[in-house]
Amino acid sequence: MERVEEVTIGIHKGKISHDDLTGLAPMLLRASDEGDAVARAVVNRLADEIAVMAITAMRRLDLTALATPVVLGGGVVTARNPLLMSGITRQLAAAAPAAEVRVIDVPPVAGAALLGLDHVHAPAAAASRLRAAYGIARL
Fold this sequence. Notes:
By secondary structure, the chain is mainly α. Helix content is 64%, strand content 6%. The chain has helices at residues 4-12, 18-22, 24-33, 37-60, 75-78, 82-95, 108-119, 124-134; strands at residues 69-72, 100-103.
Protein backbone atom coordinates (compact mmCIF):
# COMPACT_ATOMS: atom_id res chain seq x y z
CA MET A 1 0.00 0.00 0.00
CA GLU A 2 1.22 3.44 -0.82
CA ARG A 3 -0.54 5.60 1.77
CA VAL A 4 -0.99 5.49 5.53
CA GLU A 5 -4.72 5.94 5.07
CA GLU A 6 -4.89 2.73 3.03
CA VAL A 7 -3.13 0.82 5.81
CA THR A 8 -5.45 2.29 8.45
CA ILE A 9 -8.55 1.35 6.47
CA GLY A 10 -7.10 -2.11 5.76
CA ILE A 11 -6.57 -2.71 9.47
CA HIS A 12 -10.04 -1.43 10.35
CA LYS A 13 -11.73 -3.61 7.73
CA GLY A 14 -9.70 -6.69 8.64
CA LYS A 15 -7.90 -6.82 5.29
CA ILE A 16 -4.53 -6.59 7.03
CA SER A 17 -3.90 -9.38 9.51
CA HIS A 18 -2.10 -9.21 12.84
CA ASP A 19 0.72 -11.30 11.35
CA ASP A 20 1.09 -8.79 8.53
CA LEU A 21 1.36 -5.97 11.07
CA THR A 22 3.97 -7.71 13.20
CA GLY A 23 5.95 -8.37 10.04
CA LEU A 24 6.31 -4.62 9.58
CA ALA A 25 8.54 -4.18 12.66
CA PRO A 26 11.67 -5.79 11.14
CA MET A 27 11.13 -3.74 7.98
CA LEU A 28 10.83 -0.56 10.04
CA LEU A 29 14.03 -1.32 11.94
CA ARG A 30 15.86 -2.09 8.70
CA ALA A 31 14.65 1.16 7.12
CA SER A 32 15.79 3.02 10.23
CA ASP A 33 19.22 1.41 10.03
CA GLU A 34 19.42 2.46 6.38
CA GLY A 35 18.81 6.08 7.37
CA ASP A 36 15.13 6.56 6.50
CA ALA A 37 14.14 9.69 8.44
CA VAL A 38 10.53 8.65 9.09
CA ALA A 39 11.54 5.19 10.28
CA ARG A 40 14.18 6.71 12.56
CA ALA A 41 11.56 9.05 14.01
CA VAL A 42 9.25 6.10 14.72
CA VAL A 43 12.06 4.12 16.38
CA ASN A 44 13.05 7.16 18.45
CA ARG A 45 9.42 7.59 19.53
CA LEU A 46 9.25 3.93 20.53
CA ALA A 47 12.43 4.35 22.58
CA ASP A 48 10.83 7.35 24.29
CA GLU A 49 7.67 5.38 25.10
CA ILE A 50 9.57 2.40 26.50
CA ALA A 51 11.87 4.62 28.56
CA VAL A 52 8.97 6.66 29.97
CA MET A 53 7.16 3.49 30.99
CA ALA A 54 10.23 2.09 32.76
CA ILE A 55 11.17 5.40 34.40
CA THR A 56 7.61 5.97 35.61
CA ALA A 57 7.52 2.52 37.22
CA MET A 58 10.92 3.11 38.82
CA ARG A 59 9.84 6.49 40.20
CA ARG A 60 6.61 5.09 41.62
CA LEU A 61 8.59 2.34 43.33
CA ASP A 62 11.30 4.79 44.47
CA LEU A 63 14.02 2.84 42.63
CA THR A 64 15.72 5.55 40.58
CA ALA A 65 18.60 5.94 43.02
CA LEU A 66 19.26 2.21 43.34
CA ALA A 67 21.27 -0.21 41.18
CA THR A 68 18.13 -1.75 39.75
CA PRO A 69 17.93 -4.13 36.80
CA VAL A 70 15.48 -2.94 34.16
CA VAL A 71 14.42 -6.01 32.23
CA LEU A 72 13.03 -5.38 28.75
CA GLY A 73 11.48 -7.94 26.48
CA GLY A 74 9.30 -8.39 23.45
CA GLY A 75 9.97 -8.96 19.79
CA VAL A 76 11.04 -5.44 18.87
CA VAL A 77 13.31 -5.00 21.89
CA THR A 78 14.92 -8.42 21.52
CA ALA A 79 16.03 -7.37 18.03
CA ARG A 80 18.48 -5.12 19.94
CA ASN A 81 18.30 -2.39 17.32
CA PRO A 82 21.14 0.06 18.10
CA LEU A 83 19.03 3.21 17.68
CA LEU A 84 16.21 1.84 19.82
CA MET A 85 18.47 0.52 22.56
CA SER A 86 20.62 3.65 22.70
CA GLY A 87 17.51 5.80 23.05
CA ILE A 88 16.19 3.68 25.89
CA THR A 89 19.48 3.38 27.75
CA ARG A 90 20.30 7.10 27.36
CA GLN A 91 17.00 8.13 28.92
CA LEU A 92 17.22 5.54 31.68
CA ALA A 93 20.77 6.64 32.50
CA ALA A 94 19.60 10.25 32.86
CA ALA A 95 16.72 9.34 35.19
CA ALA A 96 18.25 6.38 37.04
CA PRO A 97 22.05 6.41 36.63
CA ALA A 98 22.61 3.16 38.54
CA ALA A 99 19.99 1.19 36.59
CA GLU A 100 21.18 -1.71 34.47
CA VAL A 101 19.24 -2.40 31.27
CA ARG A 102 18.86 -6.06 30.38
CA VAL A 103 17.06 -7.65 27.46
CA ILE A 104 15.35 -10.96 28.06
CA ASP A 105 14.87 -13.39 25.19
CA VAL A 106 12.35 -15.59 26.98
CA PRO A 107 8.75 -15.23 25.81
CA PRO A 108 6.27 -13.96 28.43
CA VAL A 109 4.42 -17.26 28.31
CA ALA A 110 7.36 -18.89 30.13
CA GLY A 111 6.77 -16.70 33.19
CA ALA A 112 3.05 -17.42 33.04
CA ALA A 113 3.77 -21.14 32.82
CA LEU A 114 6.07 -20.97 35.86
CA LEU A 115 3.37 -19.14 37.82
CA GLY A 116 0.85 -21.77 36.74
CA LEU A 117 3.11 -24.56 37.92
CA ASP A 118 3.45 -22.82 41.28
CA HIS A 119 -0.32 -22.37 41.46
CA VAL A 120 -1.04 -26.09 40.97
CA HIS A 121 1.83 -27.07 43.29
CA ALA A 122 3.57 -28.98 40.51
CA PRO A 123 6.70 -30.91 41.41
CA ALA A 124 9.95 -28.94 41.26
CA ALA A 125 11.06 -31.15 38.37
CA ALA A 126 8.31 -29.67 36.17
CA ALA A 127 9.57 -26.14 36.72
CA SER A 128 13.14 -27.33 36.18
CA ARG A 129 12.19 -28.84 32.82
CA LEU A 130 10.43 -25.64 31.79
CA ARG A 131 13.41 -23.52 32.86
CA ALA A 132 15.77 -25.81 30.94
CA ALA A 133 13.59 -25.64 27.81
CA TYR A 134 13.78 -21.85 27.77
CA GLY A 135 17.28 -21.52 29.21
CA ILE A 136 15.99 -19.68 32.27
CA ALA A 137 18.42 -19.47 35.17
CA ARG A 138 17.08 -19.66 38.68
CA LEU A 139 17.14 -16.20 40.27
